[in-house]
Every structure is written in structure tokens, then in C-alpha cells.
Amino acid sequence: ETGVTQSPTHLIKTRGQQVTLRCSSQSGHNTVSWYQQALGQGPQFIFQYYREEENGRGNFPPRFSGLQFPNYSSELNVNALELDDSALYLCASSLGGFANTIYFGEGSWLTVV
Amino acid sequence: DAKTTQPNSMESNEEEPVHLPCNHSTISGTDYIHWYRQLPSQGPEYVIHGLTSNVNNRMASLAIAEDRKSSTLILHRATLRDAAVYYCIPYSNTGKLIFGQGTTLQVKP
Q1: How, if at all, do strands A108-112 and A10-13 pair?
Q2: How close A97 comes to chain B (CA, Å)?
């Protein structure tokens, strides 16, 4: 039990639609990151938020966007869904800084048909 | 970003020690070495991390080479629940964990 919860756990969307995934961070954690994990691959960094500001971004197009709220919970939004967006989306929270432990949620499985 | 090299797979017998190696020869002086593991259909789980000195916790030990170009994760007594993909990740102040292919550990009863 990491204290990081994600919703929904599974969902199916149609190509071209939009999706919002949600993450509740571990209490007190001000830094949240999102990762995409395709089947059989390691997780890929999408972006990170620190105190409601985007603080780093991986190699993902602008249709991947996010928000972090004052209570440090977070959303990942993906517009104009493509078939290749089918993946496990992981949220991770920490106190920030590279000396601290990072805790992952169980992820949201997205299938685009 | 530092690159890592890990064996694709390893096998162990239950209740025996397991040593999982990782080469990270391009690691920078301030990168911490993090280890995570991932069971099927679950999110990655933190195992241990360190900078220069060897580290121990309830899950494992981390032995870091003096030149920091390699490290070894040690599971003292493997159990069936330890079967997972293990990732070694040099973590810098860029804020992102860069996952490689990791090592798939199989534990035999």
C-alpha cells in the first residue's frame, strides 16, 4: 500500500475521444509524475508537476496535458486519442528531490479501440 | 541521462540469496541509484536507493561500487513473491525516472 490511488482502474475509449485520469498523491507529497507503460515495455516519463507547476516533460505531444491541484492531487488528460495510446498510465508521488523515495499507484489501464 | 545495463533475466531458488547486477558507467556524481521492481499488472514498487555507501532496508541490500559505475541489489532470501522485473535507475535532479528493460527474476520453489 503506497498511499497513491488512481482512477479509473480500467477504461475503454474510442479513437479521437478525450480521457481524464486521476491521481491522489500520498499525503504531504508535493511532486507528482505521470508515466505511460505500453505492454512489455518499461514505464516512460510523461511529465512532472511540483506545487501545481509543470516541472519537466518527456517526449510526448501537447495533446498529453496535466494539472495538479492545491491538495496535490493530479489529472492526466489526453486529447484526440490514438490506438497507440493504449497503455497502463502510472502516477507517482514524492516529496521532490532525487534523494527521496517515489511511490507509484497501481495505474489506469486505457484501451483505445 | 545515464544509461544502465542489466541482465535480461535471472533465476533463483527459493530461500537462496540473489544478486542482481547493474552497470551504470555514465552515472553523474550526484545521481542517486534507485531500484524498483514491478510485479505483473501492478505499478512499480520502491525497493531501495543509495548514493555512495552500501544501504540496507527490510527488503534488500544495495552494494555500490567504489567508482559508482555499478551496483548490486541483494535479496537475502528469495521468496516466490520476489519474482518480478527489477529496474536499476540512476536518478538525477531532472525529476524523471528512466526505466530500461530491467531484469526479470524467476524464483523456483
Answers
A1: parallel
A2: 6
**Cα–Cα distance measured from residue A5 to residue B13, given in angstroms and rounded to the nearest whole number:** 34
Closest CA of chain B from A8, distance in Å: 14
Instruction: Give phi and psi for A66, each to the nearest 5.
Output: -145, 170
pLDDT digits (tens, 9 = 90+) for B76-102: 999 999 999 999 999 887 778 889 899
Chain B interface, best mutation among A102, A103, A109, A111, by max B CB count within 10 A: A102
Q: Which residues contact A33 (CB under 8 A, 6 or more apart)?
A: A45, A46, A47, A48, A49, A91, A92, A93, A94, A102, B95, B96, B97
Strand partners, A57: A47
Separation between Cα atoms, residue A45 and residue A49, nearest integer Å? 12
Question: What are the residues whose beta carbons fall under 8 Å from the beta carbon of B69, sequence distance 6 or more?
Answer: B23, B24, B25, B27
> pLDDT tens for residues A55-103?
899 999 999 999 999 988 999 999 999 999 999 999 999 887 767 889 9
A43 close contact with B: CB closer than 8 A: yes
Inter-chain touch B96–A99, beta carbons under 8 Å: no
| Separation between Cα atoms, residue A89 and residue A43, nearest integer Å | 8
